[in-house]
Amino acid sequence: MSRFAMEGVHVLDFAWVGVGPITTKYFGDNGADVIRVESAARPDVLRIGPPWKDAMPGINRSQFFASFNTSKKGITLDLSKPKARELAKRMVPWADIIVESFTPKAMRNWGLDYENLRELRPDLIMLSTCMQGQTGPNALYPGFGQLMSALSGFYYISGYGPGSCAPPYGAYTDFIAPRFSTFALLAALDYRRRTGQGQYIDMSQYEAAMQNLAPALIDYFATGRVLGAHGNASARYAPHGAYRCADEDGNERWIAIAVAGDDQWRAMLAALGADCTDRRFANPPARIENAVAIDQFVGSLTRTHNAQELTAKLQAAGVAAYPVENCVDIHQDDNLEAFGFWHWLEHKEMGPSPYEGLEHRMSRTPGTPRWAAPILGQDNDEVFREMLSLGADEIEQLKKENVIF
Amino acid sequence: MPSELLKGLRLLDLTDEKGALCGKMFADLGAEVIKVEPPDGCSTRRIPPYLEDIADADHCLYSIAYHAGKKSVTANLATDDGRALVADLAAESDFLVESHPLGYLDSIGLGYDALARKNPRLIYASITPFGDRGPGKDYAWADIISWAAGGQMYLMGEEGKPPLQMSIPQAGLHAGGEAAVAMMLAHYPRQIDGLGQRIVVNLQACIVWTLMNEQAMPFLHGSHLTRTGVYFGSADARRKMVYQCKDGHISTLIAGGMTFGNSTKALIEWMRENGLGSDWMRTKDWISWVPGVFMAMTEQDYKETDELEATIQLFLLTMTKHEIYAQALKRRIFLAPVATAADIASDEQLKARDFWTAVPHDTIGRTLTFPGPFAKLTATPIGSTARAPRIGEHSDEIYRGLLGLAPERLIKLRAAGSI
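The joint structure predicted for all components is written out below.
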C-alpha cells in the first residue's frame, strides 16, 4: 500500500500566481514529486504579496506564496536564456505532467509548448491554464482572479440589490478553476495508464469559473432574464441572512441564520425567547414575501445575544446558524480544529506559520501539506545534481551566468 | 458526446445541493453517473429559480444545469427493498458520493463499512458541512452557513450594512468539485492495489480556502480585514477596484510596480488623450511606486491616490462597459467589465472558442444553451452533454440491465413504493 495517493507521479511546474500552483499543490500534498520552476528574473508576483513574516516584505517572506506552494521542490531557471531552456527540456522525460500558466505566447516563444515537449516524452500530459484560453482574440488578456471574477459574472451577483456591487474578497475564481484542472489531469493520468496516450489540456479560467454560474447562463439564453444581486434575500428561506449580535471587544459580531419551514421558525423563536403574532410572518411564503421586515425583526432579537452561544442554542433546536467568522475566528474554530485543518509548518526563512490543510480527508492515503513552500531556488543544487547529473562546478558556472537564476 | 476519458467507470450520486456538481464533472468526462433519488425527486429538483418561473422539476435551472449527463433511478431509502437496491448498485460501482446527514446512511446499512465489505474497490465520499468529528458534525445547514463559517461572508459587503452572501449560492459547488478531485486522487492508488477508501469533504474548509492571502494576516501582520466594499487589499495597499460606468460597473486594478505599473500608465495615457488627468500622473515613476509593499504610504501618496481614483471614476462614467473593455484589451490595461449574463453571452472570445453548447430538452420541447466544457482536452474532448434525466427515468434500464431484475419484480417494487 502506498502512503500517499500520488506517490511516484512526477510533475514539472512552470506555473505561477494562483490557479496553476494550486493545481500542482494537490499533487504535491498527495505525495507526487513536484518541481516548481521559478526565476529571480521575473519572480512570481505572489512572492511579494502580503502577508509577510513580521509584516516585513521579502522574496521569501510571503505567506500568500507559501500557502499555494507546499510540498514542492523549488528551482530557478531564467527561461529567457537558451541555456536555461535546454536544461528545462532535459527535465521533460522525467515528467508525467507539466503545468504552465503564462499568457499563451510565453511557452511558444521559448519553444516549450506541447508540440515541442511531446517529442521529448510522447505520452506527456500537459496543462496550460491562463485567463481566457490558448486561442481566440482575447487569449493574451493579462489579468488576475479578481478581474476574472468580474468578467465571469461573480461580481454582478454580489451586492445589496440592483446598482450595488460588493465583490467577494480576493481572486475568487482562483479557487474554482484548480478543481477542474486537477480533475482533468487526474483523469488524463488514468486514461494514459489505460491507453498509453498523453494529451494537451487547454483550460481557460473564464470557462472553468462559469461552471459555477451555469443555471444563470442557461436561463439568460433561454429567456433573456438577467439574474443579479439581491442581498441575502432567498426564494427558499426566510429569515435568511446575517444578523447583528452583541459586540465583542468593540467589534461587530454577526450570526448567519437560514430558516425553511414552520417548525424551524417556531424553534428559532423559542431559542430567541420571542413570540411572534405578526400575520406577515404567518407561513413560509409570507415570510419570504416580507423578507425585509423579517430581517428587521430577527435582527432586533439577535442584537443582545452572543453569536457563539446563540449558534449553539439555535443548532440544538435544529435551526441552521453559525457565527459570521473573521480570520481570527477561523483559527480558533472548534470544527476546523477537529478536522485537523490548520498546519503550522517550518519555513526556511519565515519559521513557523499557519497553512491551510486539504478540504477533504482520505481514510487510507490521506494527503497533507508535507512541507512548507521552498525559498527561491532552494533545491537547485539537489535537483540539478541528481536529476541532470550536473557537477558542482557546472552548477556554479550556470549560476554565475544567471542561467540558474 | 461526453469525453471518453473516464469511460467504463460508474459513479453513484446520492448528493443534494452540497455535491451535485461532482457527478456532473464525472459525466462530462464520460463516466456513467447514476443519480439515486427518492420517488418524488431529490431536493435539488425544487431549487428556484425556474425557467419561465414554471415551478416544476423539468424547469428547475439548478437541476437542468447540474444533473445534465446523469442517469436517474429512484429508490425509497425508507424501505428495505429500496436500501437493498442501492446496496446492489454500490456493489457494481466504482465511486459513491453522498451528502446525507452524517451517520444516516450508516444507520440504514449503506455506510462505507457495509458497502466496502461487498465491494472493497469502492471509493466513497461523504460531503459534510463541518467534517465528521467536531461539535458541528450534525449541524443544520444551508449554503449561507458555509459562506459565514468559512470567513468569506465577513469580508463581503459594506460598512453599516450586513455581511453578504453571493446571490447564487456557491459553497455546495466548491464541495462538489472537491469531492470529484478527492475521488480521482483515491482512484490512482486503487489502480495499483485494487482498494478503495472513504473520503470526507468539508464545506467550511472549502470556503476558508477562498480567503486567499487573508487567513494568515492576524498572525503575521497582527490585523485583519472587515467588509471591504469595493476596495481591494488592506491598510496601505487599499485601492478602489470597482468603478461606475455608463451602464453598470467595471473592475480594474490600479497600482505601480513591475506587474501593474504599465497598466496604470496605459490608463493614464488613455485619459490624457481625452483631456483628463494631471501632469503628475503622467510624469510619476509608476514602475517603482509600490507603497504598501516595499514602502509606506506618504501623505502625498494618499492625496494622489484619491485624485487618481476620482479622475478615473469621472472618465469611466462617459462610456459603456463594452467600450471600456474593448479599449482595455487594446491598451493592455488590467480591467474587466462587471459582466452580466447578457455581457457574457455576447462575448467574442467565448464565441471564437465555440464555448456554448446546445442541449436539446425534449422534456420541455426546446433546446437550451449551456456553458461548454471546463477544459479543452486534445485526445478526449468534452462534447455536448445529455439533458438532465427526469426523476427515475432510467430506473428500468439500470435495475433490469445492471442488476438483472425481472420486469415483474420491478412492478412489485413500484407498487410497494420502493422505487
